[in-house]
Design brief:
The protein has 426 residues and is of the alpha+beta class. The protein has 20 helices and 10 strands. Bound molecules: protoporphyrin IX containing FE. The site of protoporphyrin IX containing FE (HEM) has 27 residues, from helix 15 and helix 19.
């Protein structure tokens, strides 16, 4: 095979498939060869230019005029005709949000919507996060065994996300199913039969988002980030547009909870599989923020993000032609020894963990990163204090097959309820 520019593709590049097992299990490991030998390559199976080194990924993120984010939420596997018909039936019209909007529209919009993310505004959500985590923990603490994903890792971040957005906390189970459909639709490779099922889920999610938005618009001003947007849409409809509101309503429900849920599951998996590190956190809870950050680097929940080249452009010495679609494997950049010493080691004392690319970089960098971090921190604080004897069970981890959102679908842990510190201290 050849690249679109007519160069031969190496055998490894030709074989690369992000839907194969190695990438699904460990994307950073699956691209070790690329980091070492061919850091920018064309993948004929994907139709994307894959970029795996830290510095190259950062350079792309930095220049969002040459490398437009407009394709960030595009379907990575084009819809079949049947699936397309389903989407049309639901009048599916997901378009630009923030994450896939070009300049200057993006910055004008982002600037209008920053207030909800100030440190004070975020801190106001902390007591609620802690209460939710405590309630969930109360419900299982006597059991001695649980799948933390099913018990709380998705439900708590989803509740927090809805609260942050001001969206009524209804239909949680349904929203979770919708989110899975959205992830598969955007970053997955559903089979022809699955395509239709996924399109049904996505179409319903689109309709649902519109209904919730309508309900919120009809109400007097409530609290939450979506209300900020609705208000800005009234004041500046050319900056915060109607379609933006509807598209964002759907995209943000996913962005604000799935990412955090998966990141929390990844962090618990990594920390519990190193009992000495877990014990250290239990003894020194002040290490938790740094440990969470290192987990985001080592095993982030977003592992790859996309851009499209607006002109012929050089990346790591390779010319990507105008129109070239780019998959930046941020999980690989996070394991690049050119930036992180002993990158495969989980080192909670690492002084540059915060340089990781899991939240992206540059003008689109994740707006909700401090909310995500806070949730991870509170989960870890509550568990290290109340269940220091927590252990990871032997298990096979499974992942939703897709290029970008990653975390175990279940995380089984066990503990001896008789050893709970709160039992010992009446
Ligand atoms: C953008 C990851 C949590 C809201 C992004 C991007 C990534 C990301 C990779 C794209 C960045 C870029 O293009 O440079 C994550 C991860 C999270 C998380 C790993 C949790 C661990 C959240 C939460 C919220 C949120 C909780 C909302 C409350 C956003 C928004 C953008 C964004 C609004 C678009 C920013 C823009 O384009 O200007 N996130 N996210 N994220 N995220 Fe997050």
């Amino acid at each position: 095979p050849e690249t679109p520019t007519g160069c031969p593709v190496s055998p490894r590049a030709a074989a690369f498939d992000p839907f194969d097992r190695p990438y699904q299990l460990d994307p950073a490991e699956a691209l070790r060869w690329s980091r070492e030998q061919e850091p920018v390559f064309y993948s004929p199976k994907l139709g994307y230019w894959v970029v795996s080194r830290y510095a190259d990924i950062k350079a792309i993120f930095r220049d969002n005029l040459t490398f437009s984010p407009s394709i960030a939420l595009e379907k990575i596997t084009p819809a079949s005709d049947e699936a397309q018909a389903v989407l049309e039936r639901y009048e599916y019209g997901m378009n630009r949000t923030l994450v896939n909007e070009d300049e200057p529209a993006h910055m004008a919009r982002r600037r209008e919507l920053l207030e909800a993310f100030s440190p004070e505004a975020l801190e106001a959500h902390a007591p609620m996060v802690r209460r939710l985590v405590r309630e969930k923990l109360d419900a299982i603490i006597h059991l001695g065994r649980a799948d933390l994903v099913a018990e709380m890792f998705w439900e708590v971040p989803l509740t927090v996300a809805l609260h942050f957005l001001g969206v009524p906390e209804e239909d949680m189970e349904q929203l979770r199913r919708f989110s899975v459909a959205h992830t598969l639709n955007t970053w997955g490779r559903p089979s022809p039969e699955q395509q239709v099922e996924v399109a049904e889920g996505v179409g319903k999610f689109w309709q649902y988002s519109g209904q919730v938005l309508k309900k919120m618009q009809d109400q007097p001003r409530g609290h939450g980030w979506m209300y900020d947007m609705i208000e800005k849409n009234r004041q500046k409809p050319d900056v915060v547009t109607d379609n933006y509101l509807h598209s964002m309503m759907m995209a943000i429900i996913v962005a604000a909870h799935e990412t955090t849920a998966l990141a929390t599951a990844n962090a618990f998996r990594q920390l519990l599989s190193r009992p000495a590190v877990w014990a250290e956190l239990c003894d020194n809870p002040e290490l938790i923020p740094a440990a969470a950050e290192e987990c985001l680097r080592h095993s982030g929940s977003v592992v790859a993000w996309r851009r499209i080249a607006m002109r012929d452009a050089s990346v790591g010495g390779v010319t990507i032609p105008e129109g070239g679609r780019i998959l930046m494997v941020t999980a690989s950049g996070n394991h690049d020894p050119g930036h992180f010493e002993n990158p495969d080691e989980l080192d909670i004392y690492r002084d540059n963990a915060v340089d990781h690319l899991t939240f992206g970089y540059g003008s689109h960098q994740c707006m909700g990163k401090n909310l995500g971090r806070m949730e991870m921190r509170i989960f870890l604080e509550e568990f290290t204090r109340r269940l220091p004897q927590l252990e990871l069970e032997e298990q096979e981890f499974t992942f939703l097959p897709n290029t970008s959102f990653r975390g175990p679908e279940a995380l089984w842990v066990r503990w001896d309820p008789a050893c709970n510190p709160e039992h010992r201290e009446p």
